TrEMBL record:
It catalyses: sn-glycerol 3-phosphate + NAD(+) = dihydroxyacetone phosphate + NADH + H(+). The keyword Cytoplasm applies. GO terms for biological process: carbohydrate metabolic process; glycerol-3-phosphate catabolic process. Keywords: Cytoplasm, NAD, Oxidoreductase. This is Glycerol-3-phosphate dehydrogenase [NAD(+)]. Residues 145-245 form the Glycerol-3-phosphate dehydrogenase NAD-dependent N-terminal domain. Belongs to the NAD-dependent glycerol-3-phosphate dehydrogenase family. Its EC number is 1.1.1.8. PANTHER family: GLYCEROL-3-PHOSPHATE DEHYDROGENASE, GLYCEROL-3-PHOSPHATE DEHYDROGENASE [NAD(+)].
Length: 460
């Protein structure tokens, strides 16, 4: 079902120069898609987690008043109910924001939130999204959204599809989407926001990223699939905290899309190295979980957190040298993305809650109010890949060849905690305090002074 789009906001994200500048950016994209008058550019967000919802809402805020030229909608599954505790909190959020309260009253939508607060009605996630509330980010009201719960209706004629799904769901959903695109004449453009990876071990070890999953599922050529990532916290971006991101992919699409997505507070750069940036976006989630554990177990000790940071960043540098021919180019973006994720990301939050005993591994990695914790599956994938003997390299300290994972003690420990469950969260501190732990500098020297690059890992 398609939701009511009355009173869509269009004044939150004007990109300097007003509607004229916005129309120029829309017209540039319309020309690339061969659009004629009366045929709007159709943009669809698939998946309504925090970042997927914010991304679609930013576009709606910026371009929603240009309805004859561009249409923006978002798909999410129907049926997910909002529990009583969340409904009560949502009611408090609504009443604390005069603008939101007035908007709901004008739209005759306020009463249902009153009834939900009293327990007389059950709200659903797709229902509240139409009013601008993302279930994974209740404290940050968005603009009203045009929500579609039928996937075929959402995507069949879409020109641009925004993948806001977790990497663990991307393949399955896009396989379904491909069935609806069999009769298409034009090829859509897909922008993936997903940060996560899978491991493929046969015929040789390699990483599979969400953009590659989409390509395999739909046969949309890689030149029409892009990745957008950066050091971003969704709620802060919607609240106009200054941020930047990078869109990666073929030049034909990434440059006009970078201009189209750019906002005064959200600067979008572009880069041609899609897969490497995408993998790095998944890698930082691995170590963010451990950072949360260390923070909780040491009562936020700055010293302990800095020790962990030194070790985890040295492992990340080592892994980038395995994956990238010119890893130095990734240093700034990767470090920035890691920094923000360790500070406030959901993966660090998850590690912290595990260590405090407020969450358990038996609860799974999809957490109420947060969504999918991508770092868990990424730990498994990176561990499996880097354990393969075919990737062995020389460890000069011991003068023998070892699998790359043997030089990544933090990754090994996170696997023992999260995947094989051989250790408790305390294991992360034991690893840091192990007297045999090498100086992080030595790991970086191994990466920089030996032929570590394994192009096959990224399918190169």
């Amino acid at each position: 079902m398609v939701g009511d789009v009355a009173e869509l906001s269009s004044n939150g994200y004007v990109n300097g120069g007003g509607n004229g500048a916005l129309e120029e950016k829309v017209d540039e994209l319309r020309r690339l898609f061969g659009k004629v008058d009366g045929d709007p550019l159709r943009i669809v967000g698939v998946g309504a987690g925090a970042w997927g919802s914010v991304f679609a809402a930013m576009l709606q805020d910026a371009y929603g008043n240009l309805r004859e030229k561009v249409q923006i909608r978002i798909w999410r599954r129907a049926g997910k109910s909002v529990d009583r505790v969340t409904a009560e909190h949502l009611f408090e959020v609504i009443n604390s924001r005069e603008d939101v309260l007035r908007r709901l009253i004008r739209r005759c939508a306020y009463l249902k939130y009153v009834e939900a607060r009293l327990g007389d009605r059950t709200l659903h996630a797709d229902e509240i999204l139409k009013d601008g509330f993302c279930l994974n980010m209740i404290d940050t009201p968005l603009c009203p959204m045009k929500v579609v719960t039928n996937l075929q209706e959402a995507v069949w004629d879409a020109d641009i599809v925004i993948n806001g799904l977790p990497s663990t769901e991307t393949r399955e959903v896009f396989q379904e989407i491909s069935r609806y695109w069999k009769e298409r004449i034009t090829v859509p453009v897909i922008i993936s926001l997903a940060k996560g990876i899978e491991a493929e071990l046969q015929p040789e070890p390699r990483i599979i990223t969400p953009t590659q999953m989409i390509n395999q599922a739909t046969n949309v050529p890689m030149e029409n699939i892009l990745y957008l990532g950066g050091p971003n916290i969704a709620s802060e971006i919607y609240n106009k905290e200054y941020a930047n991101a990078r869109i990666c992919g073929a030049e034909k699409w990434r440059k006009p899309l970078a201009r189209f997505l750019r906002q005064p507070h959200f600067i979008v750069w572009d880069n041609g190295d899609l897969v490497t940036h995408e993998v790095m976006g998944g890698l930082k989630n691995v170590y963010a979980i451990g950072a949360g554990m260390v923070a909780a177990l040491t009562n936020e000790s700055a010293t302990s957190k800095s020790v962990y940071f030194a070790h985890c960043t040295s492992e990340m540098i080592f892994i980038t040298h395995l994956l990238a021919e010119e890893p130095e180019k990734l240093a700034g973006p990767l470090l920035a993305d890691t920094y923000v994720t360790l500070l406030k990301g959901r993966n660090a939050w998850y590690g912290q809650k595990l260590a405090m005993g407020e969450l358990s591994l038996d609860m799974g990695d999809s957490i109420k109010g947060k969504g999918m914790i991508q770092g868990v599956s990424a730990v498994k994938a990176f561990y499996e890949l880097l354990s393969q003997p075919g990737l062995n390299l020389l460890n000069p300290t011991e003068n023998k060849h070892v699998a790359p994972v043997e030089l990544c003690p933090i990754l090994k420990t996170l696997h023992k905690i999260l995947i094989s469950r051989e250790q408790s969260c305390q294991g992360i501190l034991q690893a840091l305090r192990d007297e045999t732990m090498n100086d992080p500098r030595e790991r970086i020297e191994i990466a920089q002074s030996h032929a570590c690059y394994r192009p096959a890992l990224l399918g190169k």
